[in-house]
Design goal:
11 strands, nine-stranded mixed sheet, alpha/beta, Rossmann fold, two-stranded parallel ribbon
Length: 421
């Protein structure tokens, strides 16, 4: 049944087999490291090349910080082999017997242009602190940039299948290249956009990469939707998180120019933006999320001003491809939700947790009063690190599904908390 559902979704992903490349999808601005011109590998998860990261981009807690390029599978088009970039960090200290266990890190939203790839621009200060915590507790970190981010081609923003492939193949490549240093025990860890990528990897692993021992998933700031489980009643997702014309115009543009363009490679994205929105589109194609926020703030832009009235031709099938076909995850899931998370919203995070619980997923859900989408990331380590250590020790994860209750609207962020903007 699972294979059937996966095949069904794959048939619906794109209206052609050839994905767009070039400046219109944010290509360019990076070095030749990211372009693989040799013969395509026959298998996903092969290390194609690697190089040390610049000193300014290295993790303080890492003995080695590498930029990597590896083979993966196109999760949108014709399932062809593609190159995907990322990073890899080996901890300092004495390697444990059997090698370092792995955190497969799936990052949050940076943008859709190649220059937004974390392996190129570096990790944010928040993420540096977060990854250093995992490294300091004895995990190697393998981090994908995702399909089309850094490497040529459109970035299918927020789509769990291509992002899940990218996560799993980064782990495969690292294990193949460093079999004596890395242990095949993997915790999938993702935030925001990366929460869907990490859970996508968990969902796909049994059929796509069964040789990887996925122990469980840690996800914060959930951004995903599941097909409803049975007769479960959940609260409808607020329109400002689903309608591009009501969304923050920066996030909405990433959806139209990244997600929707990936699904409709023949479409002209410019046809769906207004004259007022063209600068935002150009910024999305050449720069990153923080510059898009600056533009929308400076020009007081709204989604309704940026996009044409009729987005159906390009956006109608986005939700179908964004939505997971099932909420049943094969391994335990830790979820951390800041109760002041207005970026991802609190309603849909409850919905996701409730759907996973109803489907039989073992979920450990922690909520954090006064913490935002950003603020909850590092604060949740107090609970997620012990969760991961229990997974490594093969201890049972009891879960908290018996105590899951709906959340109210996002709170005001608490002051004087690091990264709690």
């Amino acid at each position: 049944m699972l294979l059937g559902m996966i095949a069904l979704v794959a048939l619906r992903t794109t209206d052609t087999l050839s994905l767009p490349t070039g400046p219109s999808v944010g290509d360019g601005g990076v070095t030749s490291f990211y372009v693989w011109n040799a013969a395509r590998p026959k298998q996903p998860g092969e290390m194609l090349r690697q190089e040390p990261l610049p000193e300014s981009q290295r993790q303080p807690a890492a003995a080695r910080s590498l930029r990597i390029l590896y083979s993966s599978t196109d999760g949108i088009g014709n399932q062809a082999r593609i190159a995907v970039s990322g990073t890899m960090y080996i901890p300092r200290g004495t390697m444990p017997a059997g090698g370092w266990p792995i955190v497969a890190w799936a990052h949050g939203t940076t943008g859709i242009a190649d220059v937004c790839a974390p392996s190129w621009r570096g990790n944010t200060e928040r993420d540096k602190e977060y990854l250093d915590a995992w490294l300091g507790h004895g995990f190697a970190v393998v981090a994908t940039d995702y399909q089309g981010l850094g490497t040529p081609g459109a970035h299918p923003y927020l789509l769990w299948r291509p992002e899940g492939y990218s996560v799993l193949d980064a782990v495969r490549a690292a294990l193949h290249r460093y079999p004596e240093q890395l242990r095949n025990q993997v915790v999938l860890v993702g935030q925001s956009q990366g929460s869907g990528a990490a859970l996508g990897a968990a969902f796909l692993a049994p059929t796509y990469a069964p040789e990887i021992e996925v122990l469980g998933t840690v996800a914060t700031g959930l951004v995903m939707t599941f097909r409803p489980t049975g007769k479960l009643q959940v609260t409808a997702k607020p329109a400002q998180y689903s309608d591009p014309k009501l969304m923050d115009p920066a996030f909405a543009m990433l959806r139209i120019a990244g997600t929707d363009r990936s699904l409709h490679p023949q479409a002209n994205t410019e046809a769906f933006v207004t004259a007022q929105g063209r600068e935002m589109l150009h910024t999305a194609q050449t720069s990153c999320l923080h510059d898009m926020f600056k533009l929308s703030t400076r020009e007081h832009l709204t989604g309704a001003q940026v996009f044409v009235a009729d987005l159906e031709p390009i956006d109608a099938d986005m939700e179908e491809n964004f939505m997971f076909p099932s909420a049943k995850m094969p391994t335990p899931v830790f979820v951390g939700t800041g109760l002041a998370d207005a970026a991802a919203g609190t309603t849909q995070q409850y919905n996701a947790v409730a759907n996973m619980c109803a489907a039989g997923t073992r979920v450990e859900w922690h909520t954090y009063p006064g913490l935002s989408h950003n603020g909850a990331v590092n604060a949740s380590l107090q609970d997620s690190l012990p969760f991961a250590q229990r997974l490594l020790a093969k201890q049972a994860i009891v879960g908290t599904c018996a105590n899951v209750t709906p959340l109210g609207p996002p709170e005001r962020p608490a002051p004087d908390v690091p990264f709690n903007d």
